[in-house]
């Protein structure tokens, strides 16, 4: 039983973890902030506005020790949501455990051998949905392979990779795509480990036994429960037939779950409670396909960062199910169900066909590099949005049953979510500078750090397993940014396909429908201006959750706009330069990480300095109303949040913003 938690600083997060454990939580799930996830120290230019927002900053072994102060790591099961820098965070975690052992007068090797937990470490889904990748696919797969080989030998209770289909569903994946892409990722990893020769063939079953999965459970209860049974069936078949694993226990499909956040609504957010409970049941009712670990989102995640009380509520949901109900006392309730067996067979057949298609392309890495998987997810998400907008998919409180009584939970929105003090980033930046300066002021420590980094570069170039060099770096007080920078020198960086340029979206429309009316508004405004309307969709900062930006870009293109979309992880300066170079009529910024108050004003100031202050800026994301008001006061034309789900309505609003900025009279009201 977990909640996904971490924010502000290692000390603040440690206090939160200790409170949660005292309330009956049985494992820790660590959320790291975006600079940590993408290999930057808090004082790096790209870390602006992102430090401590969506997780805890961990810059060096001192931070890791503070994060787990008074929490004995030998006794803890810790899940770490970390991917591109997973090897580094595992190295820091191991060294922190060694130092706890030394302080306790124990053998550090015994503590390391006993460590239990998981590094998420699925880089494929980062290219497809979450965006915290750093390196190209080949070196990324090498880092995973090295971690698998190391942990099987040295930390045998550790899950070195969590094949993570969770974010695929968040990016729009159908159940078939979620199963097929996750299984294809597992194949890529296992094939790479086998080909590396680092694990003897006789011990390969132990590798398979440590592969775990992290799965999403949506609100379509029967389909989601059957999806889990399909996962179990396919994994057993794959590990037996492709990898020759004869031990049924080693072939067990081991998975944890966070239930769906994509379906949580800002409108009538109290409805999210029953959604979360239904989704939890989908991964617990079927004993033969039951999750080993569950973490639940909070009811107010579509509003902002949950408070400790909100996380407690989600924990109590699990405890009521486990301790008050009789759900866990019976064998599988669905054995022999004709309905369930039929749905499982349908999902298995669809997943097999999609896996075969990916295999023909050369596997998961090739399907990422070609843009196939990303384009398929963008198309699936566009279809999901179309169904919601058309009312074919009912979302209670959002597109049906919208009348509501005043909600006491959100009566004061400023206190209904957790906020991160602006001083957190300044303190973290100063702390990491002090750490480096203190280290380098001591010649012995400085030389040890330099030697460790040189070994890391040499091992990266030679093909040696990088775990030993990473542990050296952790012990030598190297920072997250220094470790990642050394590997960037050797491996380079990567920009994944956006999926927007493919043949996706709503496409055709009927005369007189909402999309055709928007197209008319766009065309008439273009005629009035004597040029085609151009908009730039930008994602400043390190927020890699690009699903919303992609859907806006796709619908804008369908509506007749010329769209400039360059993907994730852009500086405000890059966005301003692109807006000026492309002579756009509007800039649309998408930020879900909470850094909007820092990054949006920088874009506004940049446009003004570039002589483009007349280009209107609109912003979308998880933005509290008080922040939205401040952004509008600063010059933002419009702010959109998750309650604004009608993309055609939004497109009509954009036309109105452009006309107002260019001094044109309004056209008819945006389509309903």
Automatic annotation (TrEMBL):
Annotated keywords: Cobalamin, Cobalt, Isomerase, Metal-binding
Cofactor: adenosylcob(III)alamin
CDD domains according to UniProt: MM_CoA_mut_B12_BD
B12-binding domain boundaries: 532-661
SUPFAM superfamilies given in the database record: Cobalamin (vitamin B12)-binding domain (SSF52242), Cobalamin (vitamin B12)-dependent enzymes (SSF51703)
Listed Pfam families: B12-binding, MM_CoA_mutase
UniProt-listed NCBIfam families: acid_CoA_mut_C (TIGR00640), acid_CoA_mut_N (TIGR00641)
Assembly description: Heterodimer of an alpha and a beta chain.
Family: Belongs to the methylmalonyl-CoA mutase family.
Stated name of the protein: Protein meaA
Lineage: Bacteria, Bacillati, Actinomycetota, Actinomycetes, Micrococcales
């Amino acid at each position: 039983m977990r909640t996904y938690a971490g924010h502000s600083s290692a000390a603040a997060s440690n206090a939160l973890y200790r409170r949660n454990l005292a309330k009956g939580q049985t494992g820790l799930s660590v959320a790291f902030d975006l600079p940590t996830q993408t290999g930057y120290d808090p004082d790096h230019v790209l870390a602006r506005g992102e430090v401590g927002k969506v997780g805890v900053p961990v810059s060096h072994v001192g931070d890791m020790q503070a994060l787990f102060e008074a929490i004995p790591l030998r006794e803890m099961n810790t899940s770490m949501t970390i991917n591109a820098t997973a090897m580094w965070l595992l190295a820091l975690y191991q060294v922190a455990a060694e130092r706890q052992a030394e302080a306790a007068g124990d053998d550090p090797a015994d503590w390391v051998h006993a460590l239990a937990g998981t590094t998420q470490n699925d880089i494929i889904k980062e290219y497809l949905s979450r965006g915290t990748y750093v390196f190209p696919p080949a070196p990324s797969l090498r880092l995973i392979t090295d971690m698998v080989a190391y942990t099987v030998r040295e930390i045998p209770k550790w899950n070195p990779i969590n094949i993570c289909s969770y974010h695929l569903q968040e990016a729009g994946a159908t159940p078939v795509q979620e199963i097929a892409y996750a299984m294809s990722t597992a194949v890529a990893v296992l094939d790479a480990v086998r080909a590396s020769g680092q694990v003897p063939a006789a011990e390969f079953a132990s590798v398979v036994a440590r592969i775990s999965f992290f799965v999403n459970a949506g609100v379509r209860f029967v389909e989601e429960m059957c999806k889990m049974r399909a996962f179990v069936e396919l994994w057993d078949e794959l590990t037996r037939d492709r990898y020759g694993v004869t031990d049924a226990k080693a072939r067990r499909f081991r998975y944890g779950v966070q239930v769906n956040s994509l379906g949580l609504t800002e409108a009538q957010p109290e409805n999210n409670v029953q959604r979360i409970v239904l989704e939890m049941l989908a991964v617990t009712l079927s004993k033969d396909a039951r999750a080993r670990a569950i973490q639940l989102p909070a009811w107010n995640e579509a509003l902002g960062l949950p408070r400790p009380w909100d996380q407690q509520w989600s924990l109590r949901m699990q405890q009521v199910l486990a301790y008050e109900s009789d759900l866990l006392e019976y064998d599988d309730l669905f054995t022999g169900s004709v309905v369930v067996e039929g749905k499982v067979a349908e999902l298995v057949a669809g997943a097999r066909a999609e896996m075969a298609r990916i295999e023909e392309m050369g596997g998961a890495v090739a399907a990422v590099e070609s843009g196939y998987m990303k384009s398929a997810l963008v198309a699936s998400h566009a279809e999901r949005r179309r169904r919601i907008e058309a009312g074919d998919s009912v979302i209670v409180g959002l597109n049906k049953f919208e009348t509501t009584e005043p909600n006491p939970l959100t009566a004061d929105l400023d206190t209904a979510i957790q906020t991160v003090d602006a001083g957190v980033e300044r303190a973290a930046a100063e702390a990491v500078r002090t750490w480096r300066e203190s280290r380098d002021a001591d010649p012995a420590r400085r030389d040890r750090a330099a030697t460790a980094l040189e070994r890391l570069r040499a091992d990266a170039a030679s093909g040696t397993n990088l775990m030993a060099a990473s542990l050296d770096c952790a012990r030598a007080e190297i920072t997250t940014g220094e470790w990642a920078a050394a590997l960037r020198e050797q491996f380079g960086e990567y920009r994944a396909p956006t999926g927007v340029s493919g043949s996706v979206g709503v496409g055709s429309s009927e005369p007189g429908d909402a999309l055709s009316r928007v197209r008319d508004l766009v065309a008439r405004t273009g005629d009035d201006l004597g040029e085609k309307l151009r908009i730039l969709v930008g994602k400043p900062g390190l927020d890699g959750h690009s699903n919303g930006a992609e859907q806006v870009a796709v619908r804008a293109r369908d509506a007749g706009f010329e769209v400039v979309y360059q993907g994730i992880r852009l500086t405000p300066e890059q966005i301003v330069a692109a807006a000026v170079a492309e002579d756009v009529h509007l800039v649309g910024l998408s930020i879900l990480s909470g850094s909007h108050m820092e990054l949006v004003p920088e874009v506004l100031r940049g446009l003004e300095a570039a002589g483009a202050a007349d280009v209107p800026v609109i912003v979308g994301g998880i933005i509290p109303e008080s922040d939205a008001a401040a952004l509008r006061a600063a010059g933002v034309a419009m702010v959109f949040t998750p309650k604004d789900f009608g993309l055609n309505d939004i497109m009509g609003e954009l036309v109105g913003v452009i006309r107002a900025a260019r001094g044109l009279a309004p056209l008819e009201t945006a389509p309903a």
